[in-house]
Prior knowledge:
The complex is a heterodimer. In chain A, the strands form two sheets. In chain A, strands 2, 4, 5, 9, 10 and 11 form a six-stranded mixed sheet that branches. Chain A has strands at residues 4-7, 10-14, 19-25, 33-38, 45-50, 56-59, 62-67, 72-77, 86-92, 102-103, 107-112. Chain A has no helices and eleven strands. Helix content of chain A is 0%, strand content 52%. Chain A starts with a strand and ends with a strand. By secondary structure, chain B is an all-beta fold. Chain B has no helices and eleven strands. In chain B, the strands form two sheets. In chain B, strands 2, 4, 5, 6, 9, 10 and 11 form a seven-stranded mixed sheet that branches. In chain B, a hairpin with a 2-residue loop joins strand 7 (64-70) and strand 8. Chain B is globular and about 35 Å long. Chains A and B meet through strand 5 and strand 9 of A and strand 5, strand 9 and strand 10 of B.
Amino acid sequence: QQQVKQSPQSLIVQKGGISIINCAYENTAFDYFPWYQQFPGKGPALLIAIRPDVSEKKEGRFTISFNKSAKQFSLHIMDSQPGDSATYFCAASRMDSNYQLIWGAGTKLIIKP
Amino acid sequence: DTEVTQTPKHLVMGMTNKKSLKCEQHMGHRAMYWYKQKAKKPPELMFVYSYEKLSINESVPSRFSPECPNSSLLNLHLHALQPEDSALYLCASSQANGNTEAFFGQGTRLTVV
């Protein structure tokens, strides 16, 4: 019930294409869903986050789509660039657990020039 | 200033050594975290401090000893580590209530020989 399942494990996208990473969860008590971006040798950095009262959130080229009934959420990267090549982690948390993050397994994204 | 600063960036230590990792933030955050991250894996929560008090210890072996001297500083004391403890150790901070964005440091790459 505490798991967050992330797919795919790795993804190769041509420059300018759309990168899509999916996550699914079981625990309906989760109320905060962030995406983190991590470059090699660096700590994760918050990219974008969503709460279950909205179905979509967009920040620049990055969009989270959220489907509460399906218990799924996804990250879309539009016009993907080589600089987007990184590992992306989805996560989930809930207020009554002091917002401890439950992490997905990660997706290694490579954008080919 | 939205930085979490960790020192040292790299550390090599023998199994009989004692060393400490340091973390500092000046964002006024009252929750601070230690994570351990193995290659190609998501971060694993080790400890949480909330208002300078240890609130979560995720069954971490006693060879890891956290300390929170004040609201801006977090230390992780290491003693008698094993080679399998080699990993990237990440510090993070967030506001203790409400806002849940966690800011991560760049990490300390620890190698135990």
